[in-house]
Amino acid sequence: MTDSNKKPASSAPGKPAGRVAGRAGAPKKKQPPKQGPGKTGMRAAAKARAKATEKAKAQGLPPPPKPVSTEALTPGKRALAWTHTARFLTTAPELKHLPRVDMPEIAFVGRSNAGKSTCINTLTQQHRLAFASKTPGRTQSINLFSLGKQGVMDAVLADLPGYGYAAVPKEAKYRWQQVMGNYLQTRDNLKAVVLLCDPRLGLTELDEILLDVIRPRVEEGLKFLVLLTKSDKLNKTEAAKALSIVRLQAGGGDVKLFSSLKRRGVEEVAQHLWDWAHPAEKPAKPAKAAPEDLPEIND
Predict the structure, then answer these.
(1) pLDDT over threshold 60, residue 7
(2) Region 91-107: what's the mean pLDDT?
(3) Distance (Å, rounded) from C-alpha 118 to C-alpha 100?
(4) If you write DSSP's letter for every residue of 51-86 in order, what string do you get?
(5) For position 94, what pLDDT does the model report?
(6) CATH number where 127 lies
(7) d(CA 186, CA 167)
(8) How many whole angstroms separate alpha carbon 91 and alpha carbon 108?
(9) ∠ CA(222), CA(228), CA(233), 5° rounding?
(10) What percent of the chain has pLDDT over 70?
(11) What is the distance, to the nearest Å, from the Cα of residue 181 to the centroid of all Cα atoms in its chain?
């Protein structure tokens, strides 16, 4: 065999020499620098969390929730990161057992089986924060949950017992109507009320009674929101009709569609909670200048 019949040697088996040479000569793409906390910061954060967990365990408290990064988040995402800090604070069968707190308090109310516990668990991204009883009307205590980043409480959520379940004895119904009425009328740090309603039923007579109870405080500045839960069970036409009807019944209150299943309205409601708990500071009005003394007039 002559030299002219020999095939050129290839630097890689099965691949032409030209392609290999071309790849070897091509400049390598620069990898973007890795972002995020370094190893030192991550270790420090892990140690701090472990210390907080041990402290909570020693005090018989549940471990603190895992931190959520708030870098480059939308306002709704930031609000959800804040609601995720919710932790059980206390439960009270009567008003006299409720602790006095100086933080803004937001109450969740509604008929039994309206999806109140599911709504709270969805907003806080926790499965069993608010206990959903299999028997509607069974829960008859006011449950408080603290909110605040890094263990510093800056707001409170109040889960009030559901009402309107027929199997509850009349005496219990009457007692809880009084307890809820007194709470909604006299709780000093109450800043907002969220009323949950099944849009397929609309506002019932008991819901309208509750609206009448809080109307004087709403006129004084109490925030008020009606959530139409389970909105995933409605089509667009039915949802629009339910919104228009409840808006008329609510008498000026804000009304939103909400679905825990499809996460409809979750970020928007979380943003409402954040805004209510952290109202924008308004500049102080300048004090009125005292009138100058009039000069004495001598006759």
Answers:
(1) no
(2) 91
(3) 27
(4) HHHHHHHHTT-PPPPPP---TT--HHHHHHHHHTT-
(5) 83
(6) 3.40.50.300
(7) 29
(8) 14
(9) 170
(10) 69
(11) 25
